[in-house]
Hints:
Bound molecules: nicotinamide-adenine-dinucleotide
Order of helices and strands: EHEHEHEHEHEHEHHEEEEEEEEEEEHHEH
Helix content: 25-40%
Number of strands: 19
Structural class: alpha/beta
Number of helices: 11
Distance between the termini: 45 Å
Shape: globular
Mean pLDDT: 95
Amino acid sequence: MSTTDRELRVGMVGYAFMGAAHSQAWRTVNRVFDLPARARMSLICGRDAGKVADAADRLGWDAYTTDWRDLIARDDIDVVDVCTPGDSHAEIALAALAAGKHVLCEKPLANTVSEARAMAAAAVTAQAAGVRSMCGFNYRRVPAVAMMRQLVADGRLGVIRHVRATYLQDWIVDPQFPLVWRLQRDKAGSGALGDIGAHIIDLTQYVTGRRITGVSAVTETFVKERPLPAGSSGLAATVDGATADGNGADGHRPATGAVTVDDAAVFVARLDGGVLATYEASRFATGRKNALRVEINGSLGTVAFDLERLNELEFYDATRPAAEQGFSRILVTEGEHPYMSAWWPPGHLIGYEHSFTHQMRDFVEAVATGVDPAPSFVDGLQVQLVLDAVTRSAELGSSWTEVEPALATVAA
Length: 412
Ligand SMILES: NC(=O)c1ccc[n+]([C@@H]2O[C@H](COP(=O)([O-])OP(=O)(O)OC[C@H]3O[C@@H](n4cnc5c(N)ncnc54)[C@H](O)[C@@H]3O)[C@@H](O)[C@H]2O)c1
């Protein structure tokens, strides 16, 4: 329990999938970690008054509003937490920074490089006035991932040679799954690439401390036309009156629309320091629900992480005597592992939602102590530059496409 009287009054925009995940984290963070400020769940924003009132009650917010501009205009809000689709990230975050609010913005930072660059530039300017910003790549906060980074930073893997990263889902394998916002370029920016590929791009750059410098990519949209949705939230959606054969109850096909994003993206990459990497992001990996896997091979060892076993790391230490070599399974639940001393005794496992609680912990601590949290908006721009390079490479028949360093492009 926090021992401070200082409050950070949070206003959150969006109340569905990430809205619920962030609310859980805001509800929990002060009670698990002793922080220099208490997060207060002051205001939640959504466009439908009835639904957002219900969400405020269910998720634990003091009050609600139906316009994010009201939220930003209020002088009793210190932090703006952006949990909307990518098409509104830039507008909301830029307005919030201009109003002097600290900003936590979900990933990917924006839908385009130019939006992300404007956000990164505004964040750099705001830093001078003590205004902080962070992009929500929550998987950095899984203790096993943070531990993976420590192993690399401590030199336990030696010289890094390979990164192998996949993020696989299957929630749109059914061609009758409706055309939700995630399948529309104007709302989402890109498909599997920006939604889940962005996570493995950030995670591998974070763990290795290296930047992706160039890519060669292929992308595919397997199902090009889908029925329009009646409603959607997170990865779930409904079609008006649809039956199993894809027809409506009256035998007529529901109205359809074009899918304008990739269903899958596969690319090879170089990271600085001579690292070769492969990346795969797909929503068509039948049977794979949320399978994020990363393996890093170095001259002295290998480390591997699988989100479906998120309390564990596989570690191969090539410096051990030949007779003892082999992969060991590290259960990342000891008090000395990142974040874990605040939770349960060793061996008592944590889950997906804890990554968000850890994200809020790091954000609150950074804001309250006056330091810049990571990943910054510049880090978010770095990921956006890779997403853009992958898209351009795929459009040009997989031609090799360089990725600029983000900071140089912000300064330019
Ligand atoms: N970090 C992660 O692991 C993770 C996981 C899922 C989604 N995301 C990201 O979170 C963001 C939201 O995704 P989601 O899955 O929660 O989507 P969602 O469809 O479940 O929820 C979006 C919410 O935004 C609201 N909204 C949309 N436009 C709005 C506006 N102009 N004003 C106010 N509210 C508005 C919707 O009403 C809804 O409440 C996206 O950027 C997505 O990429 C991150």
